[in-house]
Amino acid sequence: MEWEKRSSFVFVKCYPGKADKVYNMIKEWNNTLGVFTTTGQWDLMAWLDTDNIEDAYKWISKIRYWPEVEKTSTHQTYYGYKNERPYWEKSACSWVKIRSNDIYTTYEEMKMYDWVATVASVPGEWDCVAAIYGDNYEEVHNYLWELTAKGYEVEYYAPLKSWWNKQYFESWNEKYAATAQY
Q: What is the CATH number of domain 2-78+161-165?
């Protein structure tokens, strides 16, 4: 399924000891597709869905000014793709920022891999944000090595704790099934 201009990936750096509270606060929002505590420079990554960029701006502004949050980095989706399988089907999944010399080719190529659960074109510092999944983390790691061997620059975040809004995904899939392109 493909979509345009309707979701955001928000990386969140929290003040010490506050990540769990922010994780739980974001889980309560109806428009949260998923939220993850991660390794790396960011404590959390949230995937938010909104009907338009103005709504995304409002939600992200709320997060940014919570007293528990030190800073955020937002990647607004221009084009997005999700394969037919649910994200929680596999045991291991990592979020990856991907960059190359050709932003359009990066997005199109990522859609061809069956181990890319979703990919979003997020023009800016990075070309794409993708969820790469496999049966275990060694398999996911091998896929990351495959990308770097092809010349892609990657920055990946292994989730320590994951929450998927399965009910929202079901309604999202139904809502866009008529216009979906698999």
A: 3.30.70.920
**Domain regions of the chain by residue span:** 2-78+161-165, 79-158
For residue 35, the tally of other CB atoms under 10 A from its CB is 26
**What are the tens digits of pLDDT across the range 12-45?**
999 999 999 999 999 998 889 899 999 889 999 9
> Residue 71 forms beta bridges with which residues?
13
Look up the CATH number of domain 79-158. Answer: 3.30.70.920
- Give pLDDT, residue 123: 83
Tens-digit pLDDT profile for residues 125-136: 899 999 999 999
What phi and psi values does residue 29 have, to the nearest 5 degrees? -75, 135
State how far the alpha carbon of 40 is from the alpha carbons of 11, 43, 136, 158, 160, in Å: 11, 7, 19, 8, 11
